[in-house]
Specification:
heterodimer; A: mainly alpha; Arc Repressor Mutant, subunit A; two-stranded antiparallel ribbon; 5 helices; 2 strands; B: alpha/beta; Hypothetical Protein Ychn, Chain: A; 5 strands
């Protein structure tokens, strides 16, 4: 499987996760969201950028509980809760946001 | 029906798991696999303890460079454990000293225990997995 981004063909796995995270660019997230029928707002980008920084630092995609807690610490309590994150990413905050951010699927979680 | 964020899937028995890491980080898959199952156990809010002994102490040594062997340096991931509420990290004193290392050489804060103290800790566990 593959997606077209800025004239380039990027390989993705059967669940739509980018095969090589070094190929990520912001348009990847925009195009993946469009395929899911949604449009990314600043609130979405805040989470996507957070995940990219988390991966850069720890070399893993965080479990949803860890993501929620870490978001709360960094962006405030009103954002560090499951309800807020599920509203932004209805397919599961860690799973869907990680996909848009070009990260691997988080280990054993939603 | 409950909303997904109200899903209480994590309710269940909490067991005391100890993961004993005894091998060098690279060359075999044991260290990385151990770290993966530790993260899964932690995601399911189990009571997780990690032990590093023998060559396993090298898993958390600072300044690992894996470029020449063409594999990912996963040592930064040990620093994510705190965010997973995994804070019981023990290093066996004898293993550390015989390799000329101190806690200053390690990427995460640990408690150094001797062989006898480690045996006591093991007595307290419900499940012990050796990697």
């Amino acid at each position: 499987m593959a997606i077209e981004v800025n004239g380039k063909t990027l390989e993705v796995d059967e669940e739509g996760y980018l095969a090589d995270l070094n190929q990520w660019e912001p348009e990847v997230a925009t195009i993946m969201a469009k395929e899911d029928g949604s449009e990314l707002t600043d609130a979405h980008w805040e989470v996507i950028n957070f995940l990219r920084e988390y991966y850069e630092e720890y070399q893993i995609a965080p479990a949803v509980r860890v993501l929620t807690k870490a978001i709360g610490k960094k962006l405030g309590k009103d954002k560090g809760n499951s309800k807020y994150l599920y509203e932004l990413f209805p397919y599961g905050p860690a799973k869907q946001a990680c996909k848009y951010a070009g990260l691997p699927k988080p280990t054993g979680c939603v | 029906m409950a909303e997904p964020w109200e899903d209480d899937e994590l309710e269940g028995p909490v067991r005391k798991f100890m993961y004993v890491n005894r091998r060098a980080p690279y060359g075999t898959i044991y260290a990385l696999e151990s770290l993966e199952v530790v993260l899964i156990a932690a995601a399911f809010e189990q009571d997780v303890t990690l032990v590093f002994m023998d060559d396993g102490v090298y898993q958390i040594k600072k300044e690992q460079n894996t470029e020449a062997i063409g594999v990912k340096n996963f040592s930064p991931t040990y620093r994510a454990l705190e965010g997973y509420d995994v804070e019981k990290l023990y290093v066996e004193k004898e293993s550390l000293e015989s390799r000329g290392l101190t806690t200053d050489d390690l990427v995460v804060p640990v408690q150094v225990v001797n062989r006898d103290q480690l045996a006591e800790l093991m007595e307290e566990q419900e499940v012990i997995l050796s990697f």
